[in-house]
Amino acid sequence: MQELLSGKRRLPGFSGEWEVKRLGDVAVLHKENVIPNATPDKTFTHFSLPSYDQGKEPVVELGLSIGSNKFRVISGAVLISKLNPRIPRIWVPLVIPEDSVASTEFLVLTPKECITRNYLYVLLTSPRLQEQMELAATGTTGSHQRIGPEHVLKLVLHVPNAISEQQAIATILSDMDAEISALEARRNKTRLLKQGMMQELLTGRIRLPIEHSTVSVRTKPTVGMFQ
Fold first, then answer.
1. Which of 67, 90, 147, 172 gets the most CB atoms within 10 Å of its CB?
2. Predicted TM-score (pTM) of this structure
3. Are 119 and 169 in contact (CB under 8 A)?
4. Where are the alpha helices (DSSP H) in 7-67?
5. What is the pLDDT at residue 220?
6. Are strands 59-62 and 90-91 parallel, antiparallel or unpaired?
7. 3-state secondary structure of 81
8. Residue 84: which of 61, 57, 58, 53 has the closest Cα?
């Protein structure tokens, strides 16, 4: 993965130039403030940290129930969590409805024309970028560390000039992620089946079949047996 994202290994058919850039060179940071409870009867699509952690499903709720200010999420946005960079939370929503908002713990970025959204995502989720984010984080404890916007925009990344190469790399890495996820899901399912079967066996609810064979037992006469 890292060799693909640094240009050290090239995909067949590509030979164009790569450049070393800062994140701020290839993405725009958006900080439009929204106060949802100022319009209590309006419906918002809320991208929060809990909704990310619970399956990456934003919550649709009324402004009345959203108690704090949010950032507006615009079409094509990529969300980066500032909180605890050691736990990467990079969100690329497939659908961003109108009146979408995000927790201010997220940074809202959109890619510039020089980079595709999918390639930006695979860069931000790469080990090298995650390491940079962890090193730039500040805070007294590991569970309350944050990375500031100014540090995020200074993250160093490698970008091929050809959009077609970016798309090819992103497609390959996305396919690999999908395959890994499928294997992990299969492993987890097998583990659950094993645990359930063990419980049934160890409580006697399921009995193993045992083949009974006729066994001849020959005893050796002892002294006095026939006397």
1. 147
2. 0.75
3. yes
4. 23-26, 49-53
5. 54
6. unpaired
7. strand
8. 53
